[in-house]
Amino acid sequence: MDEYTKKIAGKLSGGNKRKLSVAISLLGNPQIVLLDEPSTGMDPEARRFMWSIIHKTSKKGKKSSVIMTTHSMDEAETLCQRMGIVVNGEFVCLGKASQIKESYGYGYEIDLRIKPLTIELQDEYIQIINDYNKKFPYDTNEENINNDTNYNRKSKINKEELVNILIKLNKNNYIDELRENRLGNKIIKSLELKGKIALITLLNWIFFSENAFKFIRYAKDYFEEIFLSEHIENNFLFKMKKGPNTKSIGFFFGLFEKHKEECYVTEYSIQPTSLEQIFNKFAEAQIKEEKGGKNKNDEINVHEKIKNEILVNDELIQKMII
User: Fold this and answer.
1) Residues 220 and 111 occupy one common structural domain
2) Which of 35, 49, 79, 258 lies deepest, with the highest CB count within 10 Å?
């Protein structure tokens, strides 16, 4: 802070005021240093420098014990040997980062991406549909559908045609997923908004969903529960709850490496529940309590299922990979 020695403290920027406050608190190597969000308002470089100063003071110098509050889980994990999360003025957990993750973490998250559907595979799907139309040109049960239509990659389809195409592709089980908060939620919303969707959109949805569930079934027996947390086109995020048979991350990397090619997976990542996610769950529970959705004396459940998550059980896996 040499360049600011001639300036009045009250006219410094917010970040420099923080630096000055931390510098003052460290004078004389006090036994206890209390810091309240010391790196708030700083740019990334200044924040890292601040962390190095606090780290030297508490761990290397070992002259002062540092107690700090922060909303940054990166800061907490970098600097703190022990940490606690406070809700409504009370500690709800206290311990090392690894202990908190073990006790309150859900398990693992697997983020995967399926390869785009190639033109050759698109044409294979379309050929199956068109061959069916030639073999069965009229369907008395579906009077509104022109079954002898020749589809191509530029075709657009309405809801009735979509259902009929799923039947022709032997994907009848997918029809049940065409509803709100299920795998076909976005397709149904597009149909409601536009009336028609591109045929390729449907074929992509089938291809991505089928291969994502083929991939995740290899880990099914090692977890107590699996939820599909997010799915956007060819990206799928699965949450996996630890069970008695859960293995290490290294085991699952080895397992998935064997099967990623057959499931058309272009990339994937596995990581344990982060401190940020645990903190956010506690924050969500606090908001719910404040709105009257939970009694104050009730235990906060950080594993509570998110509304739009889809339980991945044997029935769903079987439905999606047939």
Assistant:
1) yes
2) 79
Sign for the pseudo-dihedral over CA of 37, 38, 41, 45: negative
Determine the Cα–Cα distance for residues 78 and 56; give it in Å rounded to an integer: 12
9-67: pLDDT as tens digits:
898 888 888 888 999 998 988 999 999 998 888 888 989 998 998 888 887 767 789 99
Q: Which two tokens stand for residue 123?
A: 């044409």
* Domain assignment of residue 261, given as a range: 107-115+211-275+297-321
Do 264 and 193 fall within a single domain? Answer: no
Q: How far is CA 270 from CA 35, 237, 239, 252, 314, in A?
A: 34, 10, 10, 8, 21
The reply to whether 111 and 254 lie within a common domain is yes
Q: Are residues 216 and 205 in the same domain?
A: no
Token output for 231: 């799915």
**What are the tokens at 283?**
């924050």
- How many CA atoms lie less than 13 Å away from 203 in the CB half-sphere? 25
SS3 268: strand
Structural domain contains residue 45: yes
For residues 193 and 236, membership in a common domain is answered with no
Q: Are residues 257 and 111 in the same domain?
A: yes
Tens-place pLDDT, residues 93-112: 899 988 888 778 778 889 99
